[in-house]
Amino acid sequence: MMERPLPLVSVGKAVAGTVIIAVLMVLLLPLAPVLILFLSLPVAYMVARHGWISGVVVAVLSAALMYVGAGIGTALLVFMVTASAGMALGWALRSGWRFPRSLAVVSGSLLVALVVYGVIIWLGFGVGFAEVKQEGLRSISDMGTMYSQFGVSAATSNQVLGYYRTLLDIFPYLVPGLLGMGVILAASGTTGLAYLIFPKLRKPQAVGMSLSGFRLHWGQFIGRRPVGESGIDRGLHPDRNALDERHG
Predict the structure, then answer these.
(1) 8-126+175-202 is classed in which CATH architecture?
(2) Are residues 222 and 72 in contact, defined by beta-carbon separation less than 8 angstroms?
(3) 187 and 106 in contact (C-beta within 8 Å)?
(4) Which of 59, 117, 141, 163 might form a disulfide with 83, Cβ 3.0–4.6 angstroms?
(5) pLDDT tens for residues 51-101?
(6) How far is CA 84 from CA 41, 88, 182, 199, in A?
(7) What is the pLDDT of residue 119?
């Protein structure tokens, strides 16, 4: 099946929506776990409505704009999320899949995308667990300085900072479980929102009416009396009824 011409207006709106959500994720970091549920919806809508080419265009343009405004790391994350979960979800809506199948495909694609993103960050930018741990220890040290400035006792400060150091030590072992749980929660929320917001995209489109649809089946005419002798014809011609009764 040939793809329709690229709808530039719809592409522009989808790119604007994706960029706005991504910028809000950067500016409102505590709300990022909620905002990321909406990040893939514009791409999913474009794929479901106009085909996969429009979805790819939206994902690429959104990532390019985020690269200009927020750098390569954020742009790469936006592209990986929208090109995986958004494309998979849009194809599920376009194909009319049920929720469990859509959730499985979206979860799998999002998991693969995040793993690839982590590998790229690790190998391409040299950011591994050692660098993350050093940055975490530096943040914990700054937190201890802040506690002392606010008058927190040394015993309480050391106890709290000790808990953070312990959590930082076991963090590498928690990454697989946290990643799997986060992927399932994100995929469930995004897929649920799509099925709630875009219900008509999952329904088959009505076929246009044609003259052939008004033809009656040949069985409708079996056993019919001639038109002149039918009751309907008598009701339409009262003078003929009177003549039939007079000469009957």
Answers:
(1) Orthogonal Bundle (1.10)
(2) no
(3) yes
(4) 59
(5) 889 999 999 999 999 999 888 888 999 999 999 999 999 999 888 888 899
(6) 12, 6, 15, 21
(7) 85
Helix (H, G, I), strand (E, B) or coil at 34: helix
Please check whether residue 206 is in contact with residue 138, taking contact to mean a CB–CB distance below 8 angstroms. no
Comparing CA positions, the residue from 84, 142, 141 lying closest to residue 117 is: 84
Q: Where are the domains of the chain?
A: 8-126+175-202
Q: Hey, what are 22's tokens?
A: 């991504």
Element (H, E) at 154: helix 154-197
CA angle (205, 55, 88) in 5-degree steps: 75
DSSP string computed for 82-143? IIIIIHHHHHHHHHT--HHHHHHHHHHHHHHHHHHHHHHHHHHH---HHHHHHHHHHHHHHH
What pLDDT shows up at residue 243?
Answer: 47
Handedness of CA 7, 8, 11, 13 (dihedral sign): negative
The distance between the two most distant Cα atoms of the chain, rounded to a whole number of Å, is 122
Q: What is the pTM of this model?
A: 0.65
